[in-house]
Amino acid sequence: MCIQRKKAEDSGLRFYATYTNIHDGNSDVQEGLHSPIVVADEQRIQQVLLNLQSNALKFTEKGKVEVRVTIVDDEFLEVKVIDSGIGIK
């Protein structure tokens, strides 16, 4: 996410990430997310997130781009890329 943060800052945008674990109530805003182990195709997940973040940065002229990661339970991880631009909902 550091590359995306740099792109956002160069464009005058705010870029941040939020990690929340519903089980333990922990919530944190971090430079880089270090979440619990998730069994998945790491490269594919990284590529999807990178594409969503790039799209958000491309179509956001002012405001913010935010990545929210929430551990809902032992089998479900929710990831949202939220922006103030005109991109996809």
Kindly describe this structure.
The chain is 29% helix and 35% strand. It is α+β, with helices and mostly antiparallel strands. It has a single domain, classed as Histidine kinase-like ATPase, C-terminal domain (Heat Shock Protein 90). A four-stranded mixed beta sheet has the order 2-1-3-4. A hairpin with a 4-residue loop joins β1 and β2. The model has no long low-confidence stretch (mean pLDDT 76).
Keywords, separated by commas or semicolons:
89 residues; alpha+beta; Heat Shock Protein 90; 2 helices; 29% helix; globular
The H-level CATH homologous superfamily, spelled out, is Histidine kinase-like ATPase, C-terminal domain
Using only C-alpha atoms, the radius of gyration works out to 13 Å
By CATH, the topology is Heat Shock Protein 90
Which structural class do you get from the secondary structure elements? Answer: alpha+beta
Low-confidence stretches: none
Number of β-strand runs = 4
SSE ordering = HEEHEE
